[in-house]
Amino acid sequence: MKVSCYTPHVKIPQEPTFSSDKARFFLQNCNNFKQLKQIHARIIRFRLTHDQLLIRKLCQISSSYGKLNYSSLVFDQLDSPDTFTWNVMIRACNTSGSPEKAIVLFKEMMCHGLVTDKFTYPFVVNACIASDDVDFGRVVHGVSIKMGFWSDVYVQNNMMNLYFKCGRDVVDDGWKVFDKMRVRNVVSWTTVIAGLVGCGRLDTAREVFEKMGSKNVVSWTAMIDGYVKYGNPIMAFDLFERMLLDDVRPNEFTLVSLIKACTDLGSLKLGRRMHDFALKNGFEVGPFLGTALIDMYSKCGSLDNAVKVFGLMKVRNLATWNTMLTSFGVHGFRDEVLHLFEEMERVNVVPDAITFVGVLSACVQMNDLEEGRKYFSLMTEHYGITPIFEHYTCMVELYVRANELDEICTLENTMSLSMKASHNVAELLQESKLTRIDDIEKLIHKYYRNSDLSELVLDHSATPTQPNFNRPYLTLLA
């Protein structure tokens, strides 16, 4: 008997195609680095690595996740990256905090004979500024002229910015670039004004400012900020009045500069007027403006208003928390400092060295060595913050008050070599106000055996005043 076997025809489904359009779609909707690597794997599998638009997107996204090495590996796989792709990679190095690598890439780009475009130079200039390499910046300037960009306003504005940002020694070069420009736009004028202000040449900046035809909010703010920065707040407000008469609406930076001027003048009345102006004109009290207001109110003697601003802020950054914490400390509210720090940790705000200066200072005010030890340990061991001189000063003060001079020597083990080179035990003694000569000698010989006691000049005339801790500010923060 013949038996026939029937094998049905089975069509095995093939893997769906993965086009460049699909890859771009997935990259635009990528949420994390793991997803990015999966998309990259499919790009390789479907042989799309020749698509430079995809490669540029991969480099941009991976560098935004802090994976610059991965971006470099992707970039290095390209046989002949075009100018646009080189620009993207140079920019990625800059934004990732590797300006030196950006400069190296530009040099490689030149060695490969690639033709630069007008967008190449701002990225390289920013790298020179970040690495403080004005000498190579001059080379870049020369290359831009040789490549025919000597009259390009966009490129020349960036060259001006290079010289102004690299210090007073080369500010004249920035001025020469501006002076030789045949065509100038608003950015050109604003750049030279801000550059001259930044280098302290207020009179020259003012002359240029007055010659500027159409002044925008950036140029007004640059001049106002310059007068505040160099100690002329009255002139800053005079300019602000002119600005309003010219019907130019100020921005947040303008207001912050003027609030700093109020702080410098110590004028609470003027500070309140600026606060009211901000609210009436629809400015949101965000981290930048709010922090300036807290600082102003605190320094002008109105801690109540500072606390109110802090409590009403929907978004706070680290500077906001530090300013409020420092304000409590300056006004003598030591308990509030520690409670605010606890609240800061509760909402997952990571403190920095400045935060702990305020916290340890509060421990000194409370004369609480155990709390000081706890927070010093928390700072160094949990948060990994390297102690600065102010932290050591607080700890020395606490040990001296507790008569535990032997413990001071243990701090030397945590002190960096640069710290030891910059500050000596005499400065710590000056802050600590030691009075007994045998204690002074004991501390000196343990900390710096070669120190000469006769070289120290200690001033004990100043005695700290005791602050008043009656007002319950914690309830206002709830």
Automatic annotation (TrEMBL):
Keywords: Repeat
GO BP field: plant organ development; RNA modification
One Pfam family in the UniProt entry: PPR_2
Repeat region (PPR), residues: 82-116, 185-215, 216-250, 317-351
One MF term in the entry's GO annotations: RNA binding
InterPro entries listed in its UniProt record: PPR_At4g14850-like_plant, PPR_rpt, TPR-like_helical_dom_sf
Protein name stated in the entry: Pentatricopeptide repeat-containing protein
Organism: Pisum sativum
